[in-house]
Amino acid sequence: MELPDSVKDVYDEIKDRLTSPFFGSFFIAWLIINWYIPISLIFYDQKELHNDNFRSFREVINSQLDLCRNVIWPLLCAFGYVLISPAIKAAINIYQTQVAVFSDNKITEILKKKSGIAAELKIKDELINLKSEQNSLAQSQIKELNSKLDSQDQEIPRLQSEVDRLQIDVNKLVDQNDINNKINELTTFVGVWIVNFSNSEGPIEETWDISLDGSVHVNNRRNYMIHRIIGHDNNVWLNLGAQGHFNTGYKSHFVFFLTRSNSNTVVWQGVDLLGETVMFQKNVYVLKPVGDNQ
Predict the structure, then answer these.
(1) pTM
(2) Residue 272, exposed/middle/buried by CB under 10 A (0-12, 13-18, 19+)?
(3) Does the domain at residues 189-289 carry the CATH identifier 2.60.120.380?
């Protein structure tokens, strides 16, 4: 069943009045100031009323009737609450706002510190990982270098052995070259020579047979060795007029030759250190010595 609009309006008005801050504050102030009346009405019975010399609840109420307590003081409290409560609420709101701002600042500061600490810890972890990677790379490079050094240490003896072998081969080649040079120089002298010279006994003719090893057989009875040759056989064949000598152990051991040649005969003529004239002559075919019979 729906209430008429007029009754509903009255109900709403009463509801607004009862829920208004002024009425609520007046009611609460009245209950606090006149507390004896509601306590007696709620908790006292007839026996307790008689013990307090009251015959009924009306007498209790009448005994508490007072304009100041029943009206003035509750009204003043209601007005004071209505007037002061906004300021109190504003102060409470300001306090709550300040507390909230302070809390937010603290929380923000803590979060910043936490984020800073987290970032610092992250950087430290990255540095630790980087150092670990660098150490691993350094260890790997050290191992690689040690391996190369070991292989080089093993290679050095082999290379030294190879160098020694090559040096031996070079020495052999040098020795062989010296031998070849000596043989080439002796080639000019190898063969049978007719040697004519004079001494205190008069003219003398000897046959000198010079071998490739440098030995000289004189008349098949005396032996000498050619120790040194100065001059080149090319000068002899090309008739450049070079002067040379060789040491045969003959007399003063030195014989000097002024050379001349034709197509078939080589003639060396010179003077020894004793002043004797010496003539060497050998038949040749082209440029090769062929002995006495050629």
Answers:
(1) 0.29
(2) middle
(3) no
